[in-house]
Specification:
The chain has about 200 residues and is an all-alpha fold. The protein contains ten helices and no strands. The radius of gyration is 21 Å and the shape is elongated.
């Protein structure tokens, strides 16, 4: 079995820094240190995950637990090349991508391709997702979409993934991903228009 790399003190501080002491406490299975570790990580994780999972905010807690468990299990290997926050958020980013990948891989590939190809006007999603005044309405429309459509739009426009990246991560062809995005955009556009006051 491979030897674990111990957490080392920061050389220029003359000893353990606060983060190093916290991590050493967690590795020593100190309950107080573990509770502080969870609290600190939760403060970083919750807004990070919430932003990436909206409108599916009910998934934030479950994904946060997955990230914390993965971090706790990987903590003995954490070499402190980056800050604890950067390391935790990196794990979270990968967990969110895994979630998107699974949902999009399982998405129903059937649909009305002709209607998607005939689509002439597509709302400018970048503007809709970035404008604070419309954010609530965008979230409302996204929450009404089938999950695969909402996730595809979030991944493409909020996370700024290319169609190629999305296809590779979801295990689909680029053409299949383009069709899924076209159906998602059309569905969004219809619901957006129907919700106009």
């Amino acid at each position: 079995m491979e030897a674990r790399v111990p957490i080392v003190p920061i050389a220029d501080s003359g000893g353990w820094d606060e983060e190093g002491r916290l991590l050493a406490g967690v590795l020593a299975k100190d309950r107080k240190a573990t509770a502080e570790f969870v609290d600190r990580c939760a403060d970083w994780l919750y807004p990070f995950l919430r932003r990436r999972l909206l409108p599916r905010s009910e998934l934030v807690e479950d994904l946060m637990q997955e990230v914390l468990l993965a971090a706790w299990q990987g903590l003995p290997d954490f070499r402190r090349d980056a800050s604890l926050r950067a390391w935790i958020l990196g794990i979270a980013r990968h967990k969110v991508e895994d979630y998107y990948r699974k949902q999009l891989r399982d998405a129903d590939a059937t649909g009305d391709d002709d209607a998607a190809e005939e689509l002439a006007v597509v709302p400018l999603f970048d503007e809709h997702l970035d404008m604070a005044a419309r954010q609530g309405r965008v979230q409302q429309v996204l929450s009404a979409l089938p999950e695969a459509y909402a996730l595809a739009l979030i991944w493409r426009y909020r996370e700024e993934k290319t169609v190629r990246e999305m296809a590779q991560l979801a295990g689909k062809t680029e053409k299949a991903m383009e069709r899924l995005l076209a159906r998602a955009r059309e569905n969004f556009r219809k619901r957006w228009s129907d919700a106009q006051p």
